[in-house]
Amino acid sequence: MGCGSSSPQQAVPPPGGGGATPPAPGGGGQSGQGGAYPANNANASRARGSDIAANNGVDAELERARAEDEGKIKMLLLGAGESGKSTIFKQMRLLYNSAERTDDDLRMYGVVARSNIVVAVRKLCAHLRNLGLEEELDRESRDAEGESGGGGHSGMSVRQAYDELMAYLVDNTANAAGGMDVKCGTVGTTSQDPSFSIKYPPLDDDLNTGKKDWVGQSPRAGLAANNDAKLFLAHHESIRILWQVNIHFFYGWGLLPCVRFALLESCWFCITMSHENIGIGDDGDSMWDGYLIIGEYLDDVSRIASPDYKPTVQDVLIARVRTTQVVMEKYRIDGIDFEVYDVGGQRSERRKWIDCFDSVTAVIFVAALSEYDQYLAEAKRTNRMVEALELFRSVCNNRAFSNTSIMLFLNKKDIFTEKIMYSDIAAQRPFCDYAGPTKDFDHGVLYFIQKFKDCLIDDEFNDSFIHNLKRSGFLGAD
Ligand SMILES: Nc1nc2c(ncn2[C@@H]2O[C@H](COP(=O)(O)OP(=O)(O)OP(=O)(O)O)[C@@H](O)[C@H]2O)c(=O)[nH]1
Ligand SMILES: [Mg+2]
């Protein structure tokens, strides 16, 4: 999504974090070495005395830290990109940290939610066009509008909404600038009405009310996300209109056939081909996660567009921000101190992992079950599940974790359930040895569990360490 390194949690400093800190006065290793301050004997012995006192202080401090460390549980969330680590991290925070998120955090997530919607809608519109479905969109939406009585209070048709979104979100053929009236309708067919103009809102003001937008901008969300959030505010009505005829897709009804087809195709597209081909840049995220955003955010566009909008707990949970820093949260659960670390999973992020490999009590390895037929954002020919297995192998067999418990969390079960209905496991080259029945959840899960077990050199992996996560309560193992 390209929102930059905007995690709201505590960022972890590099190892030996005090490296850049100036030496404490009197505590430096150079005193008494005939350095900058020559001392007489009395001074020298006083200096030695203070050295000893300082050393004792340091020793006591180290001892205290060691004792503290001994009772502390340090947990790492590891796994490939987009496997769901940060979502679990956020879920843990919900369970164990009662502190409210700061307004600064919420503003960041507000920007991210809005930009997530734009990214998903951008992909959807681009695929509708790439698949030559514009005519169908016209026809089907006219039928649907006939039944529902039109596009809502703006009077815009679905096709006009689509054309506006194509122009502003996909093609950038209509460039918006703060506070200027701009024309729309440079692409497409039906919205080339020159009277069709929209006002691009100045940053913090709602288009219609002029009211200050609570979310505004968030430097922590990164430039791209802020720009997309601005686009969202300018075009949320079109997004709503395009979506309203598709409401409740997730519950199995109401989606225009062409939009449903584009959604499914776009998922296949991301699975089987490179994002580059669709010419809208590669945010590195799969359309399947766009699915979730489409399913959960898009029904709520008006709320999210409101100037009073403050992200809810659920909005924060599903907001997708690629992790680019190691972040840590501390909890105290039943009198035991926990430190939980979240890391970025994409290949370029993994070199930062080593910074937190010291004295780890437990690793939670997160793998998305649904990724068996998807390819990496950062290496388009590598199957995501194969990558997860390789990564798991290297984590389990890493000497740094020889005394560490490793738990495997199998995530995105909801997507897996839906996907196996039409994406055969055995049809994927790396998993052509799958001999179970098609469309069978249990056999599919057992097959992948065995694949993970096969990664272990010794066979000590205990089944109780394997968890399937529920979609709605991510941490509930079943
Ligand atoms: N449908 C569904 N989506 C999920 C689930 N878990 C996570 N997601 C979505 O998957 C996307 C990626 O999740 P993240 O938690 O950001 O993944 P990550 O492992 O932290 O990714 P990196 O930070 O890039 O390493 C987000 O859009 C989540 O909302 C799940 O169980 N089901
Ligand atoms: Mg993350």
TrEMBL record:
Q: What positions does the entry give for GTP binding?
A: 317-323, 342-346, 411-414
Q: Which GO terms describe its molecular function?
A: GTP binding; metal ion binding
Annotated GO biological processes are:
signal transduction
Can you tell me which residues bind Mg(2+)?
T323
Keyword set, alphabetical order = GTP-binding, Magnesium, Metal-binding, Nucleotide-binding, Transducer
Compositional bias of type Gly residues: which residue ranges? Answer: 26-35
Could you identify this protein by its name?
Uncharacterized protein
What InterPro entries does the annotation carry? Gprotein_alpha_su, GproteinA_insert, P-loop_NTPase
Q: Which PROSITE patterns match?
A: G_ALPHA (PS51882)
Asked whether the keyword Magnesium is assigned, the reply is yes
Q: Which Pfam families match?
A: G-alpha
UniProt keyword Iron, yes or no: no
Question: Biased-composition ranges for Low complexity?
Answer: 1-10
Q: Which portions of the sequence form the region Disordered?
A: 1-50, 136-155
Classify the source by domain of life.
Eukaryota
